[in-house]
Write a structure and sequence with these properties.
5 helices; DUF3105 domain-containing protein; DUF3105; transmembrane helix; transmembrane; membrane
Amino acid sequence: MAAKKSSDSRKARIEEMRRAERSRERRNRILTIGASVVIVAGLVVGGTFLIRSQSDSSDASSDAKATSGKFVTGDDGVKTWKGELTQNHVTKTVKYPATPPVGGDHDPAWQNCNGDVYDKAIRNENAVHSMEHGAVWVTYNDKASDADVKALAEKVKKTPYTLMSPVEDQKDPIMLSAWGAQRTVTSASDPNLDKFFETYVQGKQTPEPGAACTNGVS
């Protein structure tokens, strides 16, 4: 009974976040349609140069910032990142200290994470942005069984604020990652999978709760 109440509570929380997301998207569309911007060619060139210069400067130091900290494993088997996880938008590849990463500087565009399943590898930088929005990233390598991969995909497809993709160089067959947290599960039927979803899908660790998980990179 308690598990059902917990599941209902999570579903209600996610639905509330999705309503907020839809409302935000409608406002953004109205602002976009109503806006009319005229840019002088010289300003475009100058602005582009300035942006690139600032981006290069930011990117040059982002790797060092992102590596500040370490994992601490709790009694429940969840590894929590203790240290700084920066949230800068960068355009270069980021060298993350963990595989898969659990936070740090990331691409300005998030990976679609509304129960999206990808059969090919995705960019870490986009997935990290998704986790910043409260998504759980389910990853697997070639040691995971076909049956587990299929069962995981079905679960992800039914769960908003989740995404799934292969990560061949991760150390365990099946791993779950959220912003600042990560754990390994033994199979798609491992009860720790549901526990992780319950805790970290739009969980308290989310830097930007309710932010979009659609209209990103697919």
